[in-house]
Specification:
By secondary structure, the protein is an alpha/beta fold. It has a single domain, classed as CoaB-like (Rossmann fold), CATH 3.40.50.10300. Strands 5-4-1-6-9-10-11-12 form an eight-stranded mixed beta sheet, with helices on both faces. A two-stranded antiparallel ribbon has the order 2-3. Strands 7-8 form a two-stranded antiparallel ribbon. It starts with a strand and ends in a 5-residue tail after the last helix. 40% of the residues are buried. Bound molecules: cytidine-5'-monophosphate. The site of cytidine-5'-monophosphate (C5P) has 16 residues, from helix 3 and strand 9.
Length: 211
């Protein structure tokens, strides 16, 4: 039995009290991974942005809204877990300035200056203790495998799940599961439940057996 931490869903970065930047992540992949991990007998914690999916009742769910909040909660929880699966799509940019009052329309274009948010997976993966593992997701529109491998190395992940834009807000997914040396472990097409089961099998075989 392993203790598995999953990030799931989108995050939001506010421009003013009512408007925010986000992305189209549904949280379905995170929910399917949680179900697969529980079925395999593991303990599951989920740090999730705002979603409409139902997470399994046996999972401990920690709701967050912004990328900073997701990072803070994940950093607190990771030391008591064996591994992290980064299935969330955190918002990568936030406005440089956040207005405390609702921005009024002026009839002119609105210029936004955006700065990068912290990378949750990369920050946590850099602080891995021996035996801990981190699995990332890479959603790319071009050169999917190559970019996923580059991302895996840059973010110090031990395994990467490469998928395309058709995964967003969909019930199905087509993924390639990549090992740390860049080799393809599995190519899976099917429901997010099928894909999640195969990801769990790969984690058990390649990452849990190491410790
Ligand atoms: O968005 P990107 O393709 O870089 O995401 C790759 C991986 O990094 C995913 O596992 C995602 O959950 C994670 N990520 C993150 N924090 C971010 C951006 C991405 O944890 N700010």
């Amino acid at each position: 039995m392993a203790r598995i931490l999953i990030t799931s869903g989108p995050t939001r970065q506010y421009l003013d009290p009512v408007r925010y930047l986000t992305n189209a992540s549904s949280g379905r992949m995170g929910a399917a991974l949680a179900e697969a991990a529980l079925r395999a007998g593991h303990q599951v914690s989920i740090v999730s942005g705002p979603v409409h999916v139902d997470y399994p009742q046996q999972a401990e769910v920690y709701p967050v809204e912004t990328t900073d909040q997701m990072l803070e909660v994940v950093q607190k929880l990771f030391p008591s877990h064996d591994g992290l699966i980064g299935a969330a799509a955190p918002c990568d940019y936030m406005p440089h300035r956040v207005s405390s009052a609702k921005l009024a329309k002026s009839g002119r274009p609105l210029q936004l200056e955006l700065i990068e948010t912290p990378d949750v997976v990369a920050t946590v993966a850099q602080a891995k203790k021996s035996g801990q593992w981190v699995v990332g997701f890479a959603l790319e529109t071009e050169d999917q495998r190559f970019r996923a491998i580059v991302k895996m190395q840059k973010k110090c992940c031990d395994m990467m799940v490469s998928n395309g834009p058709s995964a967003i807000d969909s019930a199905d997914n087509e993924v390639e599961i990549l090992a740390a040396d860049g080799q393809t472990i599995a190519h899976v097409t099917g429901s997010k439940q099928d894909v999640a089961s195969e990801i769990m099998n790969s984690i058990e075989k390649h990452l849990m057996s190491r410790s």
